[in-house]
Amino acid sequence: MAEPLERLLGHWHGTGVGGYPTVAEFGYTESLVFSSDGRPFLHMAQVTRDSGGSSLHVEQAYLRSPAAGRVEMVVVQPTGVVEVLEGEFSEAGGSAIIDVTSTMVGLTSTARAVGATRRRLELSGDLLYTQLWMSAAGHEDVLHLESRLRRGDDPS
């Protein structure tokens, strides 16, 4: 198993807000599913939808902890973006925190240019806070997405 990541296992759902200097602020619902087949990594499937239920974004990822306090994450998006992120796992004030920064962003020839990403997941009981910062379109390290999710079956 992928300890200490195993505490993420399960279904998470909730709401978030997004924006960017090139995009107006918007709300969304999010569903994250973390699963494991027993090997030392987790699989993550993510879906976001607008208020009408239409799909906004999907991505798949793998997380692993190769050493105490270290986390690696690979994220694949159907828009032609692949993120390779590395960082830390820590615990503070009763929360488990994953904080990773891209070491590489791969792009297909038709993908929008993304230079770097940073992700943070903070787990506090049955609440999971997620944040994504992005460097793109001439803007560096801007908070793009932030959500608050609860553990449990997705109501949709």
Features:
ten-stranded antiparallel β-barrel, mainly beta, globular, 0% helix
Show the helix and strand layout:
Layout: E1 10-20, E2 23-35, E3 42-49, E4 55-64, E5 70-76, E6 81-92, E7 95-107, E8 114-124, E9 127-136, E10 139-151
Antiparallel strand pairs: 1-2, 1-10, 2-3, 3-4, 4-5, 5-6, 6-7, 7-8, 8-9, 9-10
Mind explaining what this structure looks like?
The protein has 156 residues and is mainly β. The protein has one domain (5-151): Lipocalin (Beta Barrel). The protein is 0% helix and 69% strand. The chain contains no helices and ten strands. It has a ten-stranded antiparallel β-barrel. A hairpin with a 4-residue loop joins β5 and β6 (81-92). The model has no long low-confidence stretch (mean pLDDT 95).
The low-pLDDT segments are: none
The CATH architecture would be Beta Barrel
For this structure, what is the CATH class? Answer: Mainly Beta
Shape descriptor: globular
Give the integer mean of the pLDDT values: 95
CATH superfamily: Calycin beta-barrel core domain
**Sheet with the most strands?**
10 strands, antiparallel, barrel
Total domain units: 1
CATH topology: Lipocalin
**Terminus-to-terminus distance:** 29 Å
Strand order of the largest sheet: 1-2-3-4-5-6-7-8-9-10
Structural class: mainly beta
Rg over alpha carbons: 15 Å
Number of helices, where a helix is a run of at least 4 consecutive DSSP H or I residues: 0
> How do the SSEs run, as a string of H and E?
EEEEEEEEEE
- Number of DSSP E strands: 10
Helicity range: under 10%
The percentage of residues in β strands lies in over 45%
